[in-house]
Amino acid sequence: MIYAELISIGDELLIGQVVNTNAPWISRQLNKAGFAVKQITVVGDLENEIINALDLARKRADIILITGGLGPTKDDLTKQVLCKYFNTHLIFDPQAYNDIEAIFKARGREVTPTNRAQAELPASCIPVYNKNGTAPGMWFKADGKVFVSMPGVPYEMEAMMSDFVIPKLMQEFKSTPVIHKTILTQGIGESYLSDMIADWENCLPEYMKLAYLPAAGMVRLRLTGIGESMNLESEMANETDKLKKLIAPYIYGEEDETLAQIIGKLLRESGKTLATAESCTGGNIAHLITSVPGSSEYYMGSVISYSNEIKKSELNVNADTLVRKGAVSEEVAIQMAEGVRKKYNVDFAISTTGIAGPDGGSEEKPVGTVWIAVADANKTVAKKFLLGTNRMRVIQVASETALNQLRKLIIGQI
To answer: What are the structural domains of the chain?
Structure first.
């Protein structure tokens, strides 16, 4: 394997003021191209820390990708440190300056002396021009190792990676084929999944590896194959098919699909519509659904019936049922789903009612108790779930579980 190491520079990353989204994005692109990421390092805006990180990285990796510290202000040290590290000096680059000038002109501004200095680049580097910002990148090669410095601004870095860095790395190095297959599951924990597929997993060839990636309300199973085999693609497909058969009832999708996207696709294909009635999830299901572009084609609206009064007035939940059974009950969940389906005249409906916590639970209905109902013109199905005591996790898991219940109803699994 050709190994890469990522160095992210910036005090703001170390103190948690800014989340380092660059490193995972770069890792995904490198992996797709057949390069393995050996390590990710975060350092502050200090010369000695940056140099130490570079020294360590070149011992471990063939490719060192650096982000951050290329701005025009005094705390941006990366360019000067790299000049020192590679024993070179700055020279003015006309093309880099033209790019900077074009950006300033488009904004109706004049280039300042400080910004003009950004067009000065180390003499020994190959410039990586930046069409989206004022800080060019730099490509160095030393002792067979490649060092690339890029801005920390994500959309600037991403364009450089896609347009220049990845293609050039693939010319410089012979990458190793890496294939990932990801299966998405819901409604079962990772330990139970592990038990179900233990025999299959133990029989995987040595060049295949399974990873369990749990998140709120779901578990991703990622099968990775690495090697030069001409049949790697078909071998991976064969093993994935075996896996699917073992856990078929829990699979809802593959790769990077979300349940909201899958629901949207099913509703668009059938020309059906949806509405939601949420109590304990507080509109989170509506948020997930409307995060999908084009959701206005099939999603009509929601009633966030947090109080019993709204349940009665907006969803026609029976007052006597609320008194006898309580708001967190099968009967109320059913009436909420049916009420919102009729209210908005839609084909499908979801409802949630529960105790998200941390207070409000009882021995009969502990914190984390959630009733979820899904309805269409022919039936309404409600089910109780016990989702733990962490409020935000209860909301997240209930939302994903509700979407999966709807998916099952649409495709006839419940």
So the answer is: 3-172 (3.40.980.10), 178-254 (3.30.70.2860), 259-410 (3.90.950.20)
